[in-house]
Design goal:
With 300 residues, the protein is an alpha/beta fold. It has helices spanning 3-6, 21-29, 42-51, 62-65, 77-90, 109-121, 137-145, 161-164, 174-190, 202-211, 232-235, 252-269, 290-299; strands spanning 34-38, 55-58, 95-99, 127-131, 150-155, 194-198, 216-219, 227-230. It has 13 helices and 8 strands. The longest helix has 18 residues, at 252-269. The structure holds 3-methyl-2-oxobutanoic acid.
Length: 300
């Protein structure tokens, strides 16, 4: 059964036309805030497109959410490219933003352009996201020149975890705040298509929004942003801890645990429902063992 037919309740919000960077700029201009969610698989992507979520971020948080690894720096490049393609297949009308993982763009510009290009060509992504500071303006303009739209992720940068000794908020001192505002301006000048700001005080975001003219997506950056992104598993109540700005809207974790319990009970009680397969008529009642007869029918 296809996922389509198992979810007949189509939403009136389903995205029926592709979301583009141009349509997001229009939403920004119209003062219409846009939602973004992380997504790492085709099934969830299909449901989120149906819900009308315009942006799906194939984040390097896949390392934690999908692979169970201790941090985003462990996200494998080839896997992220595959997951990006899966998300685009599931949600062809969502704008798919691919996260470039640790060491896929920091080593040198040539390698960075090639890897970013793989996300667009093999992963069918619409744009790539890079965790950057002011030292990356050259790379941002090279990618831009190559035709690769770049989302500049500033503020808290989880790929810097070893420097910072953990995930931490950014821009909390005056000096850091002014540095962030300056970086945002320079990254826009270098050709960044959007900014993504993570974990900064609201005042800093407001200053960045007022000093730049490209869409700004926030992840714990306050209401001044044009768009907001969170990790879907947090919002779905599937993680054991969620940041304050991503409080669960559903309890899918509890539902899956219950589903597991119920299946264990069904299996142990032998209550499996109707069995849909019977021997083909020509196999007859005395056509040898069931296994032989099934092999015969499947090869015929
Ligand atoms: O990888 C990711 O999921 C992210 C978001 C948390 C912004 O970068």
């Amino acid at each position: 059964m296809s996922a389509e037919s198992s979810h007949p309740d189509r939403s009136s919000r389903e995205l029926t036309k592709p979301v583009t960077l141009r349509s997001l700029r229009k939403m920004m201009g119209d003062g219409h805030p846009f939602a973004a969610l992380t997504c790492y698989d085709a099934t969830t992507a299909r449901l989120l497109q149906r819900a009308g979520v315009p942006i799906l971020l194939v984040g390097d948080t896949a390392a934690e959410m999908i692979l169970g690894l201790p941090g985003t720096i462990h996200a494998p490049l080839d896997l992220l490219i595959q997951l990006t393609a899966a998300v685009k297949r599931g949600a062809p009308n969502c704008l798919v933003m691919a996260d470039m993982p640790f060491l896929s763009y920091q080593v040198d510009e040539v390698e960075a352009i090639r890897n970013a290009g793989r996300f667009l060509v093999e992963g069918q992504a619409d744009c790539v996201k890079l965790e950057v500071d002011g030292t990356f303006t050259g790379l941002v303009s090279q990618l831009n020149r190559a035709g690769i739209p770049v989302i500049a992720h500033i503020g808290s940068r989880p790929q810097q975890v070893k420097h910072d000794g953990g995930y931490r908020a950014a821009g909390r001192t005056r000096a850091e705040a002014s540095r962030l505002v300056e970086e945002a301006r320079r990254l826009e000048e270098a050709g960044a298509t959007m900014l993504l700001i993570e974990a900064v005080p609201c005042e800093v975001t407001e200053e960045i929004v007022s000093r730049t003219s490209i869409p700004v997506i926030g992840c714990g950056a306050g209401p001044a942003c044009h768009g907001q992104v969170v990790v879907t598993q947090d919002l779905a109540g599937m993680t054991d801890w969620q940041p304050a700005f991503a409080q669960p809207l559903a309890q899918i974790g509890t539902a899956i645990t219950k589903l597991g319990e119920d299946w264990v009970d069904r299996v142990s009680s032998g209550n499996l429902g109707k069995h849909p397969y019977s021997m083909a008529p020509e196999a007859g009642r005395d056509a040898g063992s069931g296994r032989d007869a099934m092999a015969e029918t499947s090869s015929s």
